[in-house]
Amino acid sequence: MEYVPRERVRLLTGVLSVVSLAVVFAAAGGRIPSSSVPAAPEWVIETIPLVNAVISAAAIGTITMGWREIRRGNVDRHRIAMMASFGLFVGFLVLYLYRLTVTGGPQPFPGPETVYQFVYLPLLAIHILLAIVCIPLVYYALMLAFSRPAAELARTSHARVGRIAATLWLISFTLGIVVFVILHVVY
User: Fold this and answer.
1) What's residue 4's pLDDT?
2) Which of 36, 109, 141, 158 has the greatest number of beta carbons closer than 10 A?
């Protein structure tokens, strides 16, 4: 079933990527006023990092399941798993951006400076870089999947881009959990 016009896949990927990244950078930079989102109790704001770590773990599971199912030739289960992964990613991002907007930006690191410089910051930088790189790759793989019947996808770059996106996505989600543990459990 065709949902996206074939000739618009790259254009839609580019537009969605630019808009998504603009919103993320605006929220991270404190450019979105907290008055533009509904208020929540403090306990909700404080719970978001834990919820996002759980969402990340679930996404690791669904991405892995999707990868396994396509290797087994089960396209329908692959599609379901990858759409679930994308849904989890969107849920993660909405909660993350909401928290950034309400709190006015990223949380300061409460641990020692050496851990911050040599452990936390490099892990966070890699996590963020991979998340940024994943956005257009994931959109592109999804747009290809929505623009063609499953039988035609083998003649596109869907599998190649999907493998790269899934690998980077898995690493990014994993590093996100590590960052959460360092920031909210260890310190």
Assistant:
1) 62
2) 141
- Specify whether the backbone of 52 is left (phi greater than 0), alpha (psi in -120 to 50) or beta: alpha
Query: For residues 45 and 70, what is the distance between their CA atoms, to the nearest angstrom?
Result: 37
Residue 165, token pair as written in the block: 């996106």
pTM: 0.91
Write out the residue range of the structural domain in which residue 176 sits.
Answer: 6-186
Say which residue, 6 or 157, is predicted with more confidence.
157
In 3D, which of 87, 96, 83, 91 has the Cα closest to residue 127? 96
Is 56 within the bounds of a domain? yes
Q: Is the pLDDT of residue 133 over 60?
A: yes
Token pair of 25, please? 């950078």
Q: Is the per-residue pLDDT at 77 higher than 90?
A: yes
Q: Is residue 1 part of a domain?
A: no
* Residue 76 within any structural domain of the chain: yes
CATH code of residue 23: 1.20.120
**Tally of structural domains, the chain:** 1
Q: b/e map of 18-52 (b: 16 or more CB within 10 Å)?
A: eebeeebeebbeeebeeeeeeeeeeeeeeebbeeb
